[in-house]
Amino acid sequence: EIRARLEAMILKRRGEVHEARISAKSLHKVFITLCESAGISSSNYPFNSKSLGRRSLERFMHKVASQNLVESTASRYGKDAIKRLATGTGYSKHIYSMAPYDLVGLDAHKLHCFGTVQVNGPAGSKRVAIERLWIVPVLEGDCAAILGYSVGIRTECNAAVIENALISAMSKWSARKPSIPGMEYLPGAGLPSGVFPELAGRGWATLMVDNAAPHYAKAVAERARRRIGCFLNFGPVGHWEHRGALERLMATLEAYGFSRLPSSTGSSPADPKRDDPVRKAIDLGIDWEHLLDLIDITLANYNVTPHAALGNRSPLSVLRDKYHEAASQFLPRSLPPPSAAQPELGIAIETRFVRGNKAAGRRPYIEVDRVRYTSPVLANAMSMIGKQIRLHIRESDLSTIDVYLVTGESLGTLRAQGVWGRCKHSRELRKQFNALDDAGELLNLPGSDPVQKMLAYYAGAALKQTEKNRLKVSRAGTKLAHTAHSTGKSLEEVKAMEPARAIDMVSAPEKLPAPLIQRPRWKAINS
């Protein structure tokens, strides 16, 4: 009975309230109490020994812990230690890499540093802190090379950022032009698709992801899997240690560059590296463009840095040897040509009915997110009115749309009518503009540039959010940087527009008179 009681206390088995992590000293006191309650006399063990059985009890604790490894680890060291016990068991993995591009993994991480965006306001330019950037690296499992990456300037990572990372891994890489002197690429640095052009557009066999919500989105779980032709492995729920290579990669990248910035947030609030990061980012002018340069340079340099696990060789050198050696098992996987049923990544397939009215002289067109699209071919095809067609919508640029008949024949490219067709913009940006327009935050005047109007609106909202506290991280400033990044627009000439004001400050030279009847506000917009 005493043995069972002691084992229950060591392993925290059910039946009583347990100490957080019982020590040998505390357990010995319980042991003596149990012996006294059981009626053991002072002439018998353990009372007849000098230490009252203390050393024997310590050996008993170690024996019980070793014989019940999982249970004792859970009781004394917590859930994270239990998860790590699933690795290093000595058994072979079910999924492993035999050659490059057999196994590829990705994961989203938030950078541990702040950046800023420069906003031109009535009192001059002002630095506004933005939320931390998301980075999604794509890591090859055999040579530990980074194939591609994407950056998300947003509050939460979504499926579009994940899909852009996959597109980057298969697209040809080209070096950026750093905006800060001294930021340079190492000799031979780069991503595999840029160093070895023949590897651009290649697929892989297995894609390892975790159980985050964006990985279950249709863009990843269906479109990416079908286009690349790979097996999608989500891994066990809550077990990040099965993707330890990605976690180790981000720790290495943080040590290489991101955690060395003055605006670093450190690994925890108690980290000594964390020294008023928002103030440092604003005062030192750490721009979001500087962070993008640092990300690209750090990832490219990582691929030419020797690794101990590769025999002190760099990932690119190992990949070069395995690609060129005669006995290599590496066979680059070429993707099939895109088709009407299976387009490139980043393209969503939808169907629409062609609209128009021959009697009223209205030529054929389609409508997507409140904007009309047409082309010379479709505009002259009156017989298409009322018929269904298939759209290939590139969600990163909604200025044009490729269309096909339901039988697969191409109808060419349709362009958005008006100003939407003259500026690059994403579908997300179009929906944000429509929501702001519905809420009465913007006045959609004919001929005005919607992208410039959005930039001006977010610039004004960012200034308003930091009026009382300039060290406040601005969500509107984050959207401002995201809009500029996705559209390629420069923020140097953007003038801040006062939020919640239905006046077009971009195209209207003078203030317009207020309407007699105010426009209703249909929904609320969070800046």
Automatic annotation (TrEMBL):
Record InterPro entries: RNaseH_sf
A GO term for molecular function: nucleic acid binding
Protein name: Integrase catalytic domain-containing protein
Species of the source: Noviherbaspirillum sedimenti
Domain of life according to the entry: Bacteria
